[in-house]
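[Discussion] Sanity-checking designs against the backbone

I'm trying to build intuition for which residues belong where. Below is a structure token string of 781 positions. I'd appreciate it if someone posts a full sequence so I can compare it with mine line by line.
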């Protein structure tokens, strides 16, 4: 090459740089690696939330393709951020594009075929990409930097096509608090024996991993911000949720889902998700990325992970194999383990190119994730019109009503009288609040009316089913009938991936009635949840009672502990958090009760083991701890244990009860998360505020039987018949009629054992009074 030519090239490069206008703009286009000072995905390097948002803000400030908005604050006060990315013309007319999208979402707003064609012409594929809901899945916190930078700066034809045809909504983290929690834990672990170990605390302040199980109950601020300001503002056709999975299976999962698919998910949501997922898998394989599996492991039963499935959008979950946070791992081929629906050591139709094992780095994780996101975006752009027509079709079917749906649901107002009245009021408010937050149209009857031969009072809430998001109402209002699935006829059970029930009227302890004929009554539009007269703290009844609860927090993060803490904060329960050292060291002074949430016995006993964490975070409750708990109760305290903690308490304190389910094989008894009928004994003070029967959350669970002549009082039993109310249950007969909650005197105090989970994921309002009253010494006799 002549020196003349190379200096011309150099001049050309300088001219380009100067044509950007200023150094400031050039800086604003720099890559995330330049900003961070190391390559995104480098081993042992993670970016915290200030760095992530700092880079994204800089990128947006210098780009006509990217805008950044702060939607609100997280649980711990960090900014919750949304990027909107498209070509400059689209961004300039964003409000119009959004209005078009909302008209396409509701066929009642489409006037005629000509109007529809106009909307299809002007509409864009709306793609929401959500990252980093699970903060230990650290590649998912970094990949949005790469996605945003490539979309902001690339002039490749495929990126141009994406920008022209789609609006990309990018949530860089659904849990910013967790980003910082995990990054600071990881940095402190570098160079230690426990480098890359998972943290000894929940990575969402309250609910840890369950922050991706909140997409219909909307209990947490981050869920609320995302649903209110992103999902409902846009109703995207496609939602790409970027996760990581374990390290010994496939390298990358993408739908199709495995069965069962929840029956209210529109068939075209399923079919279009199958097509898009298959396209992504094919694309990665063409790029030479091995170990891609589809149609494995994950089913589509619960709306808890899939808000969009009931709002005309597909959910493309991708799961990339993990390292040890940012520390690389070496996977021996022998360590590869079969999963649900495939074996990573063998080729199969849904796993065409196995990965043979070897080293696996954060860079691999980020590469797979980025490749997945761009394969998805290209498909969304190239098939824009198909996606919009598919979207309209889903809305049309919902508005026409499905044959399996009733004409309407009626929720009678809560009277508010009686001991349980405040709880019914709270339940109705929560139910209407969830439906409205899910964009379901709700009316309120202005006068009494008759439907299905029954008279309903004025003030009853009415959900007419001919509306765009009727599927969301239907799945939450009806009882679930999870199919009995077996490997082959008469063969072993195929256990559900997750829980099987989500019936809100049962969980909230309120009535909802399906009626088959249209309702003739004047209604007003309900915009918000109704108020309830008794504040939550008063309903719980523990404020100012002199009670103080010690809530045990193990060093193996417990979501059930976190949910309990969330409920305590919501309901104003006076409590303090105690750890192993507090109980083992007999530091329970000032508490009136100790609560063990549902925690596995091995965690209570051994914690995380001896060598994977700093010494002060290892081990569990010792013999000294057990002795301290015994002294605490015998001196008049109350020990409350929930579900999985119960057997440890029975064994350690030698209580005169046993669990009848202990040792039963899955084939005989299995309760993966279902609602069952619980009958409380009105003679017990804990049941004073309870209706005679409610739905209890059974997940594993216990059936408790007292030893002969023992002083054991039954608070509630499993119903003798009609036990299963929603979900799936194997081996009903092992529960029927047996005690579900018992109260056992010990010295001056008592132990209360719950075989159900009275505070399940913050949702089981129907049984919350039982928990609060277990913690209230005035409810003892
Ligand atoms: Zn995850």
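Best answer:
Here's mine. Compare freely.
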């Amino acid at each position: 090459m002549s020196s003349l030519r190379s200096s011309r090239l150099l001049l050309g490069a300088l001219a380009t740089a100067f044509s950007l206008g200023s150094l400031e703009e050039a800086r604003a286009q720099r890559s995330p690696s330049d900003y961070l000072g190391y390559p995104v995905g480098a081993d042992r390097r993670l970016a915290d939330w200030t760095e992530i948002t700092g880079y994204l803000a800089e990128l947006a400030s210098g780009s006509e393709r990217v805008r950044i908005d702060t939607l609100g604050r997280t649980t711990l006060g960090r900014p919750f951020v949304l990027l909107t990315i498209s070509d400059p013309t689209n961004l300039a007319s964003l409000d119009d594009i959004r209005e078009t999208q909302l008209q396409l979402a509701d066929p009642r707003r489409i006037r005629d075929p000509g109007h529809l064609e106009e909307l299809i012409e002007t509409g864009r594929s709306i793609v929401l990409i959500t990252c980093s809901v699970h903060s230990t899945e650290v590649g998912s916190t970094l990949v949005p930097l790469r996605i945003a930078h490539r979309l902001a700066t690339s002039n490749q034809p495929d990126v141009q096509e994406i920008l022209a045809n789609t609006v990309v909504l990018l949530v860089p983290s659904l849990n910013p608090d967790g980003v910082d929690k995990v990054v600071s834990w990881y940095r402190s672990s570098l160079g230690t024996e426990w480098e890359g170990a998972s943290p000894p605390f929940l990575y969402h302040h309250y609910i840890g991993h369950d922050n991706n199980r909140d997409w219909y109950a909307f209990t947490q601020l981050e869920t609320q911000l995302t649903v209110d300001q992103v999902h409902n503002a846009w109703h995207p056709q496609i939602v790409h949720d970027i996760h990581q999975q374990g390290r010994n299976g496939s390298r990358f999962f993408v739908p199709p889902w495995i069965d069962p698919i929840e029956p209210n998910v529109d068939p075209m949501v399923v079919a279009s998700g199958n097509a898009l997922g298959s396209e992504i898998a094919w694309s990665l394989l063409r790029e030479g990325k091995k170990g891609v599996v589809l149609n494995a492991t994950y089913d589509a039963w619960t709306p808890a992970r899939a808000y969009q499935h009931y709002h005309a959008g597909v959910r493309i979950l991708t799961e990339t194999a993990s390292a040890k946070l940012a520390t690389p791992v070496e996977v021996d081929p022998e360590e590869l383990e079969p999963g649900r629906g495939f074996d990573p050591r063998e080729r199969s139709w849904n796993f065409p190119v196995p990965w043979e094992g070897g080293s696996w780095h954060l860079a691999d994780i980020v590469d797979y994730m980025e490749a997945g996101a761009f394969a998805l975006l290209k498909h969304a752009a190239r098939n824009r019109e198909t996606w919009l027509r598919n979207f309209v079709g889903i809305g049309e079917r919902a508005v026409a009503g499905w044959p399996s749906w009733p004409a309407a649901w009626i929720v009678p107002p809560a009277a508010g009288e009686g001991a349980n009245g405040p709880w019914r009021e709270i339940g109705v408010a929560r139910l209407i609040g969830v439906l409205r937050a899910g964009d379901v149209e709700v009316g309120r009857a202005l006068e009494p009316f008759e439907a299905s031969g029954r008279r309903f009072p004025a003030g009853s809430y009415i959900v007419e089913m001919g509306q765009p998001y009727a599927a969301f109402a239907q799945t939450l209002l009806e009882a679930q009938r999870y199919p009995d699935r077996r490997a082959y006829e008469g063969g072993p059970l195929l256990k559900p991936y997750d829980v099987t029930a989500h019936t809100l009227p049962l969980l909230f302890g309120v009535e909802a009635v399906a009626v088959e004929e249209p309702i003739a009554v004047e209604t007003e539009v309900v915009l918000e949840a109704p108020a309830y007269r008794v504040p939550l703290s008063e309903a719980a009844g523990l404020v100012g009672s002199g009670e103080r609860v010690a809530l045990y927090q193990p060093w193996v993060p417990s979501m059930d502990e976190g949910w309990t803490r969330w409920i305590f904060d919501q309901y104003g329960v006076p409590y303090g958090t105690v750890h192993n050292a507090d109980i083992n060291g007999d530091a329970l002074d000032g508490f009136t009760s100790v609560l063990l949430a549902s925690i596995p016995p091995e965690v209570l006993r051994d914690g995380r083991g001896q060598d994977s964490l700093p010494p002060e975070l290892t081990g569990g409750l010792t013999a000294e701890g057990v002795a301290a708990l015994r002294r605490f109760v015998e001196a008049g305290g109350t020990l409350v244990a929930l579900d999985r903690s119960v057997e440890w308490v029975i064994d350690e304190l030698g209580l005169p009860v046993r669990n009848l389910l202990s040792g039963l094989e899955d084939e005989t008894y299995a309760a993966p998360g279902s609602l069952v009928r619980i009958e409380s004994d009105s003679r017990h003070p804990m049941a004073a505020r309870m209706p005679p029967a409610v739905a209890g959350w059974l997940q594993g669970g216990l059936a408790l039987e007292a030893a002969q002549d023992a002083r054991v009082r039954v608070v509630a039993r499993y119903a003798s018949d009609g036990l299963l109310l929603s979900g799936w249950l194997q081996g009903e007969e092992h529960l029927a009629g047996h005690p579900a909650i018992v109260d056992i005197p010990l010295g001056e105090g008592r132990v209360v054992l719950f075989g159900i989970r009275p505070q399940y994921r913050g949702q089981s309002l129907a049984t919350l009074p039982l928990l609060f009253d277990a913690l209230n010494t005035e409810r003892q006799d």
